[in-house]
Amino acid sequence: MVRAARSAPLDLCQPAPSVAPDNLIQIRTTHRPAVTSILPESETKPAPLSHSGMKVACSNCSLRELCMPVGLSDDEMSRIDQLITTRRKVKRKTPLFRTGEKFHALYAIRTGVFKTCVTAEDGRDQVTGFQMAGEIVGLDGIVNDQHTCDAVALEDAEVCVLPFDRIGELSREVGALQHHLHRVMSREIVREHGVMLLLGTMRAEERVAAFLLNLVQRLQARGFSRSELVLRMTRQEIGSYLGLKLETVSRTFSRFAEEGMLEVHQRQVKIVDVERLRGVLAQPGGSF
Question: What is the pTM of this model?
Answer without folding.
Answer: 0.73
